Amino acid sequence: MSKVLNGKVAGGGFVIEDIDYTRIVTPEDFTEEQRMIAQTTEDFVAAEIAPHDEAIEKLNYELTVEKLRKAGETGLLGADVPEAYGGLGLDKVSSTLIGERFTRASAFALSVGAHVGIGTLPIVYFGTEEQKRKYLPALASGEKIAAYCLTEPSSGSDAQGAKTTAIPTEDGKFYIVNGTKQFITNAAFADIFIVYAKVNGTDFSTFIVERTMPGVSVGPEEKKMGIKGSSTCPLILEDVKVPAENLLWETGKGHLIAFNILNIGRFKLAAGALGASKDALELSAKYANERIQFGRRISSFPLIGKKLAEMNVKTYALESMVYRTAGLIDEGLAEVDHRGGNVGLQAAKAIAEYQLECSINKVFGSEVLDFVADEGVQIHGGYGFIQEYRIERIYRDSRINRIFEGTNEINRLLIPGALIKRAMKGELPLMQKAMALQADLLELMPAQTFEGTLEQETHLLGMAKKIFLMVGAQAVQKYQAKLEQEQEILSHLADMMIAVYAMESALLRTRKLIAKAGEAKAENAIDMTRVFAQEEFSRIEAWAREALSAMESGDTLRTQLSVLKKLTRKPPVDTLGLKRRIAAKVVEAEKYVV
After folding, report:
1. Phi, psi angles (nearest 5°) of residue 182
2. What is the average pLDDT across 15-20?
3. Domain 29-145 class in CATH
4. CATH architecture for segment(s) 422-589
5. Which of 193, 154, 172, 173 is nearest to 164 (CA)?
6. Is 405 among the catalytic positions?
């Protein structure tokens, strides 16, 4: 069983402990109410957004605001807002379903996401009772639109390098805010801005700034590669008098708000990437069945089938990961009392518990979508390069996701860094597990045979965790406090952790599906899990080999590579044959299929 903390699964614990499939949330667990919420979102997009897609893509602000308000009236903007403040107070699985289903609305989905996520959640989790009552009902209904203002011309990933200042007035009733924020989604029409500034130039803090406050202005629209239907402008603050009561939480706590809200933002981004991946796969499968070349549908050619199968497999792993993580966050936030006096502290602690998993979702999700979108364009051939075909826009729009919410490079540094910090605080027995493993690795490991369903993949997952611990322990011992300077090693450790979490998520979901429906009905899920586990394990082996080779040489390296060879010993699997079976199901269904 998994490492648990106060009855909940511990963040990051997946790398050292095994978890039972009964502890995770999967799409097969959705309630009828959750499925209705998903359908309501799909119906809204089809009826309200799709007919106006071209106008929205051309940055029709009035239309975008009108549709945002319509979404609010439908209840789709209030999922994360407690009922006491005019929202629906839904669980994270439900709000994740809304985010996933909204992606067919293209850039409009980004306008929604920025509003309901990073724009509204700072007030939900860190606002005072007065702030919540004043702002949340209007944000939940769409009467007011929110924007999140962290990035500056000179500070992106280095958020605390911001130069925007907030100087308190002598009477203490206001803060005079000056500065410029860059790349602000919804800026052209937002009413409420969540602004980060340094009080007295030193204490990083957060403020609720209203558009109507004198000194607030917005610069021109950025001309972007993709997501053209969303507003992206600089926000200019010139001697803006912000009432002292508009300070969020406390002075100097801005970094905690920013980082925790970004954690949720990263997770929501992965949900959006999941929806877009499904959309791209459906477009590609339908096109492959329609396109005739050499007298045959191109879907009948094995190389096209292989692409569709790989797109489906990666999407399955991502979907498994996203809803597993939604369940974890639900557990963490369940005990937050929104009427209590220390809501901010409770929320920060609950969200930070799964910081690592949120970053994993963000990196994996954005890279899966890029892969799926790219292969989708390839399947479309020359038509994939033409704007008339939707896959072209998905391809352009997908690229920003590896930059949004902290670049993938920054997140790759955060993932192992967060794990090590948790271990140093005594929250995870990471080094104890690594030390215990070292003795086991020197023992003879007999070759194994695997007969039961997914037995080999379960074994590979266990070996993957051991490989991560072996390489991680070596890195910590060799570099100690200087490990943070070894970014390539940290990146490889992050990639191993991402692969382990994705492998485990797919494997646990499939085991749960088998227990619920039987092996016959889970055949495709079994095939996909086998393919994914086999291919990810090979990547883990390559990352480990490269990392060890960078850290050691000579006899020490030879010994370590010998141990790695023992850990990676496995019988071959016909993954090409499995992909042909998966492809046949995708071609028949003409969409993502489990």
Report:
1. -115, 150
2. 93
3. mainly alpha
4. Up-down Bundle (1.20)
5. 154
6. yes
CA angle 474, 479, 484 (to 5 degrees): 110
Query: What single DSSP character describes residue 327?
Result: H
Integer Cα distance of 274 and 114 in angstroms: 17
Fold of 148-248: Butyryl-CoA Dehydrogenase, subunit A; domain 2 (2.40.110)
Contact 35, 109 (CB under 8 A): no
Q: What is the pLDDT of residue 160?
A: 72
Q: Band the pLDDT of 341: cuts 50, 70, 90.
A: low
Residue spans of alpha helices (H) in 291-407:
302-333, 343-352, 355-380, 390-398
Q: Are 200 and 167 in contact (CB under 8 A)?
A: yes
The HSE-up count of residue 328 (CA atoms within 13 Å, CB side) is 28
Strands (E), 136-201: 146-149, 165-168, 174-185, 192-199
Average pLDDT estimate for 352-367: 96
Whether domain 254-409 has CATH 1.20.140.10: yes
Residue 203: strand pairing partners:
199
pLDDT score, position 440: 80
Residue range 433-483, pLDDT digits in tens: 988 888 787 776 677 788 899 999 999 999 999 999 999 999 999 999 899
**Helix H or strand E segment including 564:** helix 554-567
Looking at residue 346, its pLDDT comes to 84
* Residue pair 504/19 in contact by the 8 Å Cβ criterion: yes
3-state SS string for 256-307: HHHHHHHHHHHHHHHHHHHHHHHHHHHHHHHHHHHCEECCEEHHHCHHHHHH
Catalytic annotation, pick one of 282, 353, 405, 541: 405
Pairing mode, strands 146-149 and 192-199? parallel
